[in-house]
Amino acid sequence: MPLCIDFLGPVITGHKVNNIQATPLRGSDMAFRDHLAAATIEKGEISLIHEMLEHSQSSNHAMTIFENITECPGHKSAINMLTRDRLCAAIGIEPEAYIDTLGWAMTNPSTPVLVNTDDAPCMENRAPEVDLNLIPIPHHWPADRGRYSSASIIIAQDNGIRNVSFHRQFLRDKNHLVVRLVPRHLRTMVMNARSEGREVSVAVVNAPDPVVLLAAAMSFNENIDELTIAAALHEKLYGTPLQLVELPNGVQIPADAEYAWWGRITLEDDNEGPYVDITGTVDYERQEPVIEIDGLTHRDNPIFHALIPGEAEHKTLMGLPRAPTIKAAVNEVVNCVDVHMTEGGCGWLGAVLKIKKENHDDGMKAIEAAFAGHKSMKIVTVVDEDIDITDPVRVEWAMMTRWQPDKDTIILSNQRGSSLDPSRYDDGKTSKIGYDATIDFGVDREGFMSVQ
């Protein structure tokens, strides 16, 4: 199926499909590669098999571009780009403001712009045949099953709905991936299609710009087109529209992505895992859906985003987008000032909330709302406005001076657990705990205030 330069293609906004005329590509300096100026350039030869991980560990996890990859001549790879501070610097936002900016985008989605196919940077090199072995997909941890594409997003379109999300992909052979589908919208989309004997058209996209990655990491209770959230962030932070291009299978992707391959989530399952996940523990083997790849394209001098699972970049991408949804849920019942997904909680399983207490039970209400806002969480701690929630010492200090275990603790049993938690019960359930480390409402606060 040929690509059509003037195709009047579908752009999906929420649940709806709108037609929009393809327009000329506008110049952009906000692509993935444009955020790598501070990276160290490694010119020495390096293998995809474990050596990028070893380099990261020996360099104190420096942001690095590898230019000489043994298995993939002509391709580069980047690691350790999207730690919290580096991400905020890359997209031009203060760390203290990122939650409210993401929250704003969630409530102000925008429509991406479809651009001419032949002008799109991601279409500069269309491979004559598919061989994913020639792409620098790394095998980081010795415990992993093999080579994994962990930072690539999957864009799926089916029955007029678009979904954009992260799901790790094991490289099985030159044109097949096995994808770990966690129980979210894409899995539902695939299961519904399979019940009708259908495959789902997808694109696997590596290294779009960071706001697209942030939007893809968000999850919502309802079907929301994450590219409309990315478009809002793109306009607010960069002052330009998010530009998409249509692939031969009809799936639209960010036009300035480094790599894209297109194909179908098939009716076949195969072994996936083991895999070192965000907790640093090894996730076990499962039967998961197979993606068959029909075509591949990339930019000139492409740079593959080779995220290392279980390290800071992984935790940032998973944790940062959860903070605004938690804050929004808590703000429905109390005045929530800030949310921090903790490092010890792997950016996923634990959070500290800062609230402005206006009623005696605000702390307890905040805990319950936070668990509802992010059902994978296991521990929530609530503190007052004077506590630095990014400092675990100050959070523990608040607990030791403002928390009483018998009256300021909530324990919930038989709750939905996270598949990332190896301690969960056999049925997938877990217990959860919340600590209200705020000063009791109405008391004299002076005796609770630190002079340090």
Q: What do these coordinates show?
A:
The chain is of the alpha+beta class. It folds into two domains: 300 residues, Roll (Pnp Oxidase, Chain A), CATH 2.30.110; 128 residues, UbiD C-terminal domain-like. 22% of the residues lie in helices and 29% in strands. It is built from ten helices and 25 strands. Strands 7, 8, 9, 10, 11, 12, 13, 16 and 19 form a nine-stranded antiparallel sheet that branches. A hairpin with a 2-residue loop joins strand 1 and strand 2. Helix 3 packs across helix 6. The longest helix is centred in the middle third of the chain and has 13 residues. It starts with 7 loop residues before the first strand and ends in a 16-residue tail after the last strand.
Structure described in brief:
The chain has 452 residues and is of the alpha+beta class.
Roughly how many Å is the radius of gyration?
A: 22 Å
The CATH homologous superfamily of the largest domain: Electron Transport, Fmn-binding Protein, Chain A
Poorly predicted tracts of residues: 1-28
The coarse overall form would be: globular
Portion of residues in helices?
Answer: 10-25%
CATH topology of the largest domain: Pnp Oxidase, Chain A
Q: What is the strand content?
A: 25-35%
| Cα end-to-end separation | 68 Å
Mean pLDDT: 88
Number of helices: 10
| Largest sheet descriptor | 9 strands, antiparallel
Number of domains: 2
User: Would you count the extended β strands for me?
Assistant: 25
What is the CATH architecture annotation of the largest domain? Roll
Q: What oligomeric assembly is this protein in?
A: single chain
Which class of secondary structure composition applies to the elements?
alpha+beta
Q: Give the CATH level 1 class of the largest domain.
A: Mainly Beta
